[in-house]
Amino acid sequence: MPKSRIRKKDDFTPPPAKKTVIKLDTRRWVAPFMLALFAIGLLWIVVFYVTNTHYPIESLKNWNIVVGFGFIAAGFGVSTQWK
């Protein structure tokens, strides 16, 4: 019986890597706006406690805490846009 020829396999060369350019939107306003919302919310709550519930808006009474945390929550909402 005849011997079959042994074929030599070429060395493996990986395919060329695709160069993808990721272009991120520059949203420079996000970080300062987020930090400003955090600061406003914190300041709102601190002023409420320091002034013995007379300021920022006396008619809201304890709802001032909710307003302060609302600003902080809005800051977290804006932070999702940060890239």
Give a description of the structure.
The protein has 83 residues and is mainly alpha-helical. It has two helices and no strands. The longest helix is centred in the middle third of the chain and has 21 residues, at 30-50.
What is the count of DSSP helices, taking H or I runs of 4+ residues? Answer: 2
Uncertain runs are: none
Biggest sheet character: none
Overall outline? rod-shaped
Class of secondary structure makeup = mainly alpha
**Total strands:** 0
User: How much helicity do the residues have?
Assistant: 40-55%
Roughly how many Å is the radius of gyration? 30 Å
Distance between the termini: 69 Å
The average pLDDT value, as a whole number, equals: 88
H and E order: HH
Beta strand %:
under 5%
Properties at a glance:
2 helices; rod-shaped
Give me a quick take on this structure.
The chain has 83 residues and is mainly alpha-helical.
Task: Spell out the blueprint of helices and strands.
Layout: H1 30-50, H2 63-79
Helix pairs in contact: 1-2
